[in-house]
Amino acid sequence: MRKFTKIFLSVSSSVILSLIALLITAWLLMMLPPVQNAVARAVARSVSRSLNTTVSFDKVELKLINKLAFEGFYIEDPAGDTLLFADRLYVTMSSRALVRGDLIFKTAGIQGGIFNIKPDSTGVSNLSRFLGATETGDDNSSYGKPLHLAAPKPDIDGINLRHPRRGTINT
Fold first, then answer.
1. How far is residue 76's CA from residue 96's CA, in Å, rounded to a whole number?
2. Which residues contact 79 (CB under 8 A, 6 or more apart)?
3. Nearest to 54 by CA among 168, 142, 159
4. Helix segments in 72-171, DSSP class H
5. What DSSP assignment string belongs to 29-46?
6. pLDDT tens figures, 68-97
7. Element (H, E) at 155
8. Is the overall model pTM greater than 0.70, yes or no?
9. How many CB atoms lie within 10 A of CB 93?
10. 104 and 94 Cβ atoms separated by less than 8 Å
11. What b-and-e string marks burial along 129-143, b requiring 16 or more CB atoms within 10 Å of the CB?
């Protein structure tokens, strides 16, 4: 009986140590920029398909598990024009919300870029269509299924806001 207990404890401790080593290795791999970019590009493709539009970026930096910084972040409107281009976009996400499949940002900010708001032939702006798709799942939207987003007041610096009736506003 003692021999069985000794073997069981030995095997159990080996399995637990292996799992801990695997988790540490996965975390260390996620800290490597090439791995971060590969994972983030897969997520961007998924979000692009979900919203039925192009979402892309040049580079991503993951800090811990819930802090992201994107360089060259781009969202396309249904007409194929730029809705948003940000030199740098950064967010801190709620970990609990991620588990539920929602994106709730604790902090969000944009540095440099263009926010291009324009109406379509029906008079509805590309931003309204995008927000309608992300918040309500509007079937009349050119975007796909809803993506639940919530964010506090974002930190915006150096953005050119382009609006057909108000011209360009620099922040």
1. 29
2. 120, 126
3. 142
4. 95-100, 126-135
5. HHTSHHHHHHHHHHHHHH
6. 889 999 998 877 888 999 999 998 887 777
7. strand 155-163
8. no
9. 19
10. yes
11. bbebbbeeebeebbb
